[in-house]
Amino acid sequence: xxxxxxxxxxxxxxxxxxxxxxxPERFSGxxxxxxxxxxxxxxxxxxxxxxxAVLTNGDLLAPQNISNLVVQNSxxxxxxxxxxxxxxxxxxxxxxxxxxAATGAIAAVLMVEHAVPWPLAVLLTLICGGLIGAWQGxxxxxxxxxxxxxxxxxxxxxRALTLAVLGNQGIGPFPSEVSTIANGFMPTYLGNxxxxxxxxxxxxxxxxxxxxxxxxxxxxxxxRAGRVRHGxxxxxxxxxxxxxxxxxxxxxTVIVQLARFKxxxxxxxxLAALVIAYTLLTDRVVFGRHIYSIGGNIxxxxxxGVKVKSVTFWLFVNMGVLSAIAGMVFAGRLNQAGPTAGTxxxxxxxxxxxxxxxxxxxxxxxVVGAITGGLMMGVINxxxxxxxxxxxxxxxxxxxxxxxxxxxxxxxxxxxxAGR
Length: 420
Description:
Layout: E1 2-5, E2 8-10, H1 24-55, H2 63-88, H3 96-113, H4 118-141, H5 147-166, H6 176-183, E3 192-193, E4 201-202, H7 203-229, H8 237-261, H9 266-284, H10 286-296, H11 298-303, H12 308-334, H13 345-355, H14 367-386, H15 391-418
Antiparallel strand pairs: 1-2, 3-4
Helix pairs in contact: 1-14, 1-15, 2-8, 2-9, 2-12, 2-13, 2-14, 3-4, 3-5, 3-12, 4-5, 4-12, 6-12, 7-8, 9-10, 13-14, 13-15, 14-15
């Protein structure tokens, strides 16, 4: 036992909750199972990248293709951030794609038809997205209608709103500032490097990548140190170092390839800011802990003083705002808002969340996992496109990946329950 106070002790990593030492094989089995569940998505992602890199003769990892992967999937990844929070709380949002279309249409009408300055138009569009989310959040949180029903209705209502706003036709082009956010790249500030594999790489992009990598190392080390202080199970130092090293290599490989092409896409910087902000929200802020507690056990959360209705309401407001951001990014990428925009986006975002480790029952999931799940779907789409696979094979592969991810989560839960 490890003492944490005068009269308090918690089990160490090699003891169970009753304070009885675990047999080495039982301890290692639990640790391996926990590590596999936490890191399985990243292992699967790496294997899929290797697979398609081989099948495409390296074209998948070409600088231009990596840049295209980021830009083409940015709006799905933005939606996945909001969707993972909704799913963690035990809900679902089927209207996200229609809200993307509706907010993109609103932005187009403001900027193109009414010549509203783009910063003001962006702000008004975000407010509209928040109001849409508030509308749906009210019916779910305060009126008690299941989110599935509310957002299914919203999928139809906001698609109809899109058609009404656009007059069933596309509106564009957008101001150059908006399209640049979706399609543009950070300019060169410090010049390029002309050395070996870094030939032509932008120095500023590389420095940003190194700073990001340093943040990953510090964050992971502090997280591990915190678990050790509280007597929680942690992997051996060598395994931890190997895991972090793999992440660093992957990140720097992507950064170098982007630096050799056209530098960092602006939308990647936007996405990185959102990922960092929402990771801090879920890991460090009380509101984030309330989301997990609601999804884990809503009755216990209520008895613990969590304002379940308020948290649920603001989750849907947040989803509306993120859908508005995704709507403007998608419309800016196409340089026009269309009546069919966003079709199926909600399904991709939901798939990204579940592939990334979200539990069907709620209470489990991470923002980084949802981003990884979204990137995995993007790699599958891109890789199979590069090898010329027909649409039906792409849909089949994606469906099997989604089913496998959820089946693995259910299996891991059953195994954990049987091991107690």
